[in-house]
Amino acid sequence: LASIYALTKYAQERAVLIFGDAYGVDAVALRLFNVFGAGQALSNPYTGVLANFASRLANGQRPMIFEDGEQKRDFVHVRDVARAFRLALEQRQARGHVINIGSGRAYAISEVARMLADAMGVPEQLPDILGKARAGDIRNCFADISKARELLGFEPQHRLEDSLDEFVAWVRNTVAIDRGADMKRELEERGLVS
Known about the structure:
This protein is α/β, with parallel strands linked by helices. The chain has one domain: 3-Layer(aba) Sandwich (Rossmann fold). The protein contains seven helices and nine strands; from the N terminus they run αββαβββαββαββααα. The strands form four sheets. Strands 7-4-9 form a three-stranded mixed sheet. Strands 1-6 form a two-stranded parallel sheet. The radius of gyration is 18 Å and the shape is globular. It starts with a helix and ends in a 5-residue tail after the last helix.
């Protein structure tokens, strides 16, 4: 592992499953991919890429993209995540498992930025492709949700492209402070962008 973030997530998964096994408690570790939906912190540039893009666009700035924009990510709606948690509580066959919760779809980050700019009515705000990678980022990260389907009966119901209008309506009624430039500067100062 090259990322402290990834390491902490893995340690939390293991801790939950070890605790469950040691104390006879039904335990399941759900591995969430890029969760999106109304209620995200739009002023924290480390929250998630969609919130970061929305904050930038709401403040008249172009979405900032590391690498070349063709890296792929999986975006799962918060309602689907909530349903996955409920299913994990109900389905005993899930205990002791680590289960990916995502949409099962891969979206190029530059495509996501353009889709959001269109939904926000500012299609001219094309992504700012930095061509620099952040330390610890992996090229592509999307979910194989076959285990979620098998053990939980989980099927995502809210696709990113069908949920952006609702997300944008919420963004328009929320204060979004763009701190993207601060994040970029902090990463560069710490040598975490190359």
